[in-house]
Every structure is written in C-alpha cells, then in structure tokens.
Design a protein that fits this description.
mainly alpha, 9 helices
C-alpha cells in the first residue's frame, strides 16, 4: 500500500484555522456588504483556493512531485476511482428517483444560478478552484491528518463532513427526510475520493477525480 506524503503540524494548524474561519466567520462577514449571492460564493471559492494552497503549499508541492514520479499509479486510480464513483452514484440516484420522485438537489439549482449570474467565474470556481481547495481540506487535513491516529475516523469524518458541507446551507429548505437523502447522495463521492487518495498515496489523484466529476456535472446541467 503506498505511503502518504507527510503533512506537518504547522500545515495542519494553519489549514485547520482557515477552514474554521471560512466555514463560520467569512460568510457572515461578507453578508454585511452589498454583494449578490453569486459574488459572495465566488469570493469564497477564490479565497478558499488561495489560502488552502498557501497554508498547505509544502504538502501540495511534495504531492505534485510524487504524482509526477508515479504517474501510472496516479492515472490508474484516477480511472478506477472515477468508474467506481459514477457506478455507485448512478445506482444510488436511480434508487432515489424511484423511491422519492419529488426529490430535487438544491445544490444543483444553486450552482445553476451561479452559472447564470457569472458564467466564466462560476465555471472556473466549480470546475477547478473548489475541487483543489476541498481536497486539501477533506483529504489532506482530515483524512491524512486523522489516518495516523484512527483509520476508521479518517474515513468516516472526511467523507461525512464532505457530504454535510454540500447540504448544510440548505437544511432550512429541506425537510428532514430530504436532507438525509441529499447527505447520502454525496457519500459515494467522499468515499471514492478517499479511496483514490489511499490507494495512490498522493492527493493529486482525488483532485483530478474531483475536477473531472465537477466538469461532468457542469456539462450535464447545461
């Protein structure tokens, strides 16, 4: 099994600190300015990308070198991870459509609204900035940070919080049943991204997977 690239305590601290600020303080701060929802989201996408890359620049650089050296392994798990994701998500989506035909994913509608308001910036944000920042957070800080202490916690916490982050903003709009469905629908993505990271040993693999998943989603939305 490939070994993970080491992440330093300093990177864990600064990355974790920014993640808390970005989740709990920055959105509230931006709401005090006369900005549209699409502008706020774009600012969050850009700031998350820049600060996560800055906080974890050493970790990211080492992973890029590792991916270049072991490109065949990276490519293999990129392909296998994507195949497993599309298969598991397709089956789950089919079951949801069959059992809960009235269900709609509010996050998809939110992304569509951003694309209508600022198509270029929203496309770049969703297709590239968000995948890189989210992988550094959920696979780098959480999965990698927790794995040395508890393999089970690494898998559960990273995949669970990844799913929750795509549902949290809509909890007041979903009923309890639909909120749970939305949460479950994102679990295959978090789990398959974790798997690709664990098997390949470098975070570039789930980053490329995440980019491919989001680009596919954008194409299907339009």
């Amino acid at each position: 099994m490939p070994m993970f690239t080491k992440i330093s305590n300093k990177e864990l601290f600064w990355g974790g600190l920014y993640a808390l600020i970005s989740t709990f303080a920055l959105p509230t701060l931006l709401e005090h300015f006369s900005l549209s929802d699409s502008s706020i989201n774009c600012i969050l996408f850009v700031s998350n990308f820049l600060f996560m890359c800055l906080a974890l620049h050493g970790f990211l650089r080492k992973n890029l070198k590792n991916a270049a050296k072991k490109w065949a392994q990276t490519l293999l798990w990129f392909i296998l991870g994507l195949a497993l994701y599309f298969l598991s998500t397709g089956v789950l989506q089919y079951l949801v459509n069959a059992l809960f035909p009235s269900f709609s994913n509010l996050n998809d509608g939110h992304v569509n609204a951003q694309l209508d308001a600022a198509p270029v910036l929203a496309t770049v944000s969703v297709a590239f900035l968000a995948p890189v920042a989210e992988e550094l957070l959920y696979r780098g800080l959480l999965f990698r940070g927790l794995y040395s202490s508890s393999c089970a916690a690494a898998w559960c916490v990273s995949a669970g919080l990844f799913s929750l982050s795509h549902v949290l903003g809509y909890l007041g709009l979903y009923g309890p049943e639909h909120a749970l469905i939305a949460f479950v629908l994102y679990l295959p993505a978090g789990t398959c991204l974790n798997l690709a990271y664990r098997k390949s040993g470098n975070i570039i693999t789930p980053m490329l997977m995440h980019i491919a998943i989001n680009i596919t989603g954008l194409v299907l939305m339009r």
